[in-house]
Specification:
Layout: H1 2-9, H2 11-35, E1 51-52, E2 55-56, E3 93-95, E4 97-98, E5 105-109, E6 115-120, E7 125-130, E8 135-137, E9 148-151, E10 157-161, E11 167-171, E12 176-180, E13 184-189, E14 194-199, E15 208-213, E16 220-224, E17 232-234, E18 242-249, E19 255-261, E20 270-272, E21 275-281, E22 287-294, E23 300-307, E24 318-319, E25 329-331, E26 336-342, E27 362-368, E28 373-381, E29 390-395, E30 401-406, E31 412-416
Parallel strand pairs: 3-28
Antiparallel strand pairs: 1-2, 4-31, 5-6, 6-7, 7-8, 9-10, 10-11, 11-12, 13-14, 14-15, 15-16, 17-18, 18-19, 19-20, 21-22, 22-23, 23-24, 25-26, 26-27, 27-28, 29-30, 30-31
Amino acid sequence: MILDYLKQLGWKKILLIIIFLAVCFALGYGIYYMFFRAEDSTVVNKDSNNFNNGLPSINNNQNSNNNNNSTPGSTATPSYEKIADLPLANGAKTPTLPFFKDAVVSPELNNAGNGLIFYNPEDNHFYTVLGSGEKILLSNKEFFGVQKVYFANDKNKAIIEYPDGNKILYDFSKNTQLTLSPSITEPSFDTNNRVAYKRVTEDSDDNWLTVSKIDGSETVLVEPIGDNGDMVQVNWSPTGEVVALYTEARGNSESEVYFIGLKGENFKSLTVAGTNFKGLWSPSGARLLYHVVAGANNYNPLLYIADAEGDTIGAHKYSLGLTTWVDKCVFATETILYCAVPKDLIEGAGLYPEAVDEQIQDLIYRLDLSTGLKELVAEPTDVNGANFNISRLYLSAKQDYLYFWNKLDEKIYALHIK
């Protein structure tokens, strides 16, 4: 009876029904396979060199905290001192690496220009750490509670300041020290074994801008400063002719900057459009990079450049159009400059910079003073994508790395730029 019914239905229709059922089965299995099948518990990492949070892993994951191949008892830690594998800065977010594991005090570029010299408060020692990661102990002596360090140009000597104001001069090449007067304030070394400083005492009549040999001999009282020490920036010019810069406000929107010479020279002054002046000499001393704060720029620091030598002082003065502090800049040549520039600054940050420390996110620019060209070098980040507030910027002798001191964690970092 079923056979008769199938004959009446026809073989073609039967074939179509079979095909339809087969297609339905295939689709059903496909849906099950894609959405309801249990996952394979074995995970294969096919891209171990991928970026963390979108940024390249500069350790190739060899020391990553996600490394599941560690043996019991071993600890996978990042290699803080290896910077050779850092990706090249490309005008966008670029990961950087701390090349020393601890926070440091008063870092400066070493003489060879291939690393930084500093005090480490974690173990009370002074070190030079090279870009390669090599760590060199400067002295076996421990220095407890150092607050600030002023290195001589040869980096073999330094004035070491303690929180109570006491200071010593230490010679790392000879392991000798000399106790200095607490009245010595903001010392600055020149290239001829001399040191300039503000002598600040309880008697304002005895406050002087002073120059002497590093050992304290041949002392010269250059200029009385009275109660105006805060208006004096001890800052040797590269030629050694200028010892300091003295700034006098002319109302709320203008200041006069005086160049104080060692021999009482009557240098021309520089008129600047703002207050809170601070300057940085070009390598030859022919020009002065400086910032001032003015209402026209929302009371934030604005960079300027001007001639600063002889009869041309104040000539060719113009704004660089960058809102940042001169402390965040470094000269590569007489005409090439690198600066860390905050993305955004709230109004008044130039008057109270410490109030915005946590908010600043710096970009790094390259400026060509001969052409006026400004180029974004990088937005430096750590390997987790966090930004930096850069206190100081340093350029390696080969100009292939920028080193910087991060204000937030006080560690030193390296950025590969060439």
